[in-house]
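SAMPLE LOG
Freezer: B-3
Tube label: C17
Construct: single chain, 369 aa
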Amino acid sequence: ELPDTFTFEKLTKVLMSIRRVSNQNMGPGPERFKKIMSDFINLLVFTDNLKIASSLLYVVSEKKKSDLLLLNMLKIFGNYQRVVKFFRILAEKEILGTVVINSLFLGVDSMVARGIFIYAKLFFTNLHNRNDNFLKTILTPLLNYVFQLEDSLEVDPVKFKLTVSVEDRQKKIDQNFEVLKTLIIDFLSLLSQSLPQIPKIFVQIILHFHKRFIKIIKKSYFLISNFLFLKIICPAIVAPHLFGVIDSPPSTLSANRTLILVSKIVQSIATGVKFGQREGYLVPINEFLATKMGWVEKKVYERVLSEKEQKEVVTVPQKAQDRRVSIGMRAEWNRNGGQGEKSAEEKLELGEGELEEAVGMVHNMLEDD
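STRUCTURE (predicted):
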């Protein structure tokens, strides 16, 4: 627990101050302030187990505040090219607290899943005007087609107007299913051609997870479908404006509904789960889905595993170069496979006084600010 005097707002202010610090130059300011800033960056970013960083994310329970902390943390770790390391440590911590393996990295309570979603929005929004934007490449043709439609490609009978006859309604549903199938085929084809454009940072994250958790998560493509599709591609289909693909949200309810339907079908293909009673109106497309199941495993899985694992190029701030190991956090997380004097659980627990020392540093920074 943080002291009552140390508020979420103060912590956010400190993280935003750290974001403004350049990689190599602390800039003008009192030497004491620069030393404190450097020490805190070292403590936050460059310790082997990132215990302070991962622990600070859990000091607030409200999701909105927690996501704001995640956003600031990701920007900081991105500045120092430590994003893969950051996600790796978060994943280790989440695994230690997970009883049901099948629930790993799923749902709103998963810090890893929320982090991937937030980082993807941040990453692709920054690529808004670039031609090599992976999401813009695969989504632009789909969006252009959907936005010029007069009506949605609705296939749920209950969403049709009561004035439409049963016969006309079924005829329209059958037509819409055929158009949706064509859209999905074209989308998957373009996605297949564009796989080399998947940003390496996301490939590296998935590759790290694949190698680290292959013995825990037997189906490796689960990681690919979860991170790449459920947290990036499918959300970007529904809300392309959040990922810098377009400037504003879809302007009509019909376009929004069609994009939701496309996202549901793509998600089903990615996860290998057919539609059931919960979304019974989509059951008629299951036969089509059966011909596409395994597509993710075959295409995207090959793309990820073809990538040679590379170590991140760590950028160390000048003042922190001689102080990269501090406060007793010297053990490399994966050294000796978690064997040795401390267990994995003990390594992720903050030592006595460590969080207090971090908070003290932050208070000093606020006094000098």
